[in-house]
Specification:
It contains 13 helices and 16 strands. It is α/β, with parallel strands linked by helices.
Amino acid sequence: MRRKKKPNPPWRNYEQVGGIHIGGGYIFPPGGIGPGSKDRAWINKQGHIIERTLNHFNIPVFARWMGSGPTLARFSIEPFSIPKGDREVLEDIARQILALTDDLKLALAAKHLYLFPPAPDENILSLLLPHPYPASMRLLNALTSPVFSKADRCLRLILGQEAMGENVIVDLQKLPHLLIGGKAGAGKQTLLHALITALFFKTPPDSLRLCVIGTRYFELTLYNYLPHLLMPVIMDPAQGIAALRELARQMDARVKRLEQLGITDVETLHTRSEKQGGEASLPYIVVIIDELSTLMLEDQAETHRLLLRLFQDARRAGIHFVVATQAPLPKTLPGAVRSRLPASIALQVGSEQDSRFLLGCAGAECLLGRGDMLFQPRRKMDPLRIQGAFISSDEVARAVAAVKRQ
């Protein structure tokens, strides 16, 4: 008598999305889901330690858990008995608490701890504490989420999750260029993989072209089979500079064509084409430069000249840049080039000087590494703490293969 074959359990019921397998019928939980039993015990313990430590210094407070991301937990610290609207007393107590950062580190047995003063309309301080059970933020979860799949913009980037567990999705068209800085091993290569995958995962080749200049890591040659490529992945610095010359020529041709049509920019052209039911003839171009310092070493004067030339009309012509470097210094990024890269991501850097060059403030030198970052969409804005999205090389290869089969 033949045995009946047992049905596969629910977690083995796979469906294929873009060449990457996910569990069929499974709805990913929201970012703000409550903590598990292990996390809850740790959260309660840390809250009591915060209150006890500050009470020891005659600062009675109430500590409350606000939410957790992949690697950080956020607590609010609310001082007792502050008269409503008495900002001066609140600021004095906030200064006392900020001065006790080292004592809180010692009491909480935390290598890193981040305290933020209260916002203008709030009476609470924020505290970020590294999580004892860190988790990675999988890019696949965000790529298949309804928020990303229903987005109407084709240059959406998934950066990761902020400290409250919410996905951070930005529009490259609005940035319009992005600078990434961080030392070796901080997660820069994984971040570039996540950004490139998010771009081609949603946008077809007739709406997006990619130019990848990766003069340092051969891992970027994975994208050589991608139909979105404007040219093969460039690994030679001299060829990288030649690619910038070609981009400048294409930019000039695009600007002339827009002037003939009486249109200000490529985005307006795409909007008009959608309304008229036609296809846009000028796809967006996103240029990924993996290590800018290598191009500067090859020919600093020519690289500087070409970048300044491109930044003048790049946004108008539908060309956007993502520039990464391990050396965020004035020698690598002269002032004229740095000022034209308004949005910045700082991964863990080697010194406070590097952090100030990227963000205009200290803080990136104290990050945890492994994708922990500060994102600043505009200069002089407060940076947002994010845990970067993770995607493995195998997942990238499968995603590229799935697009190529089409």
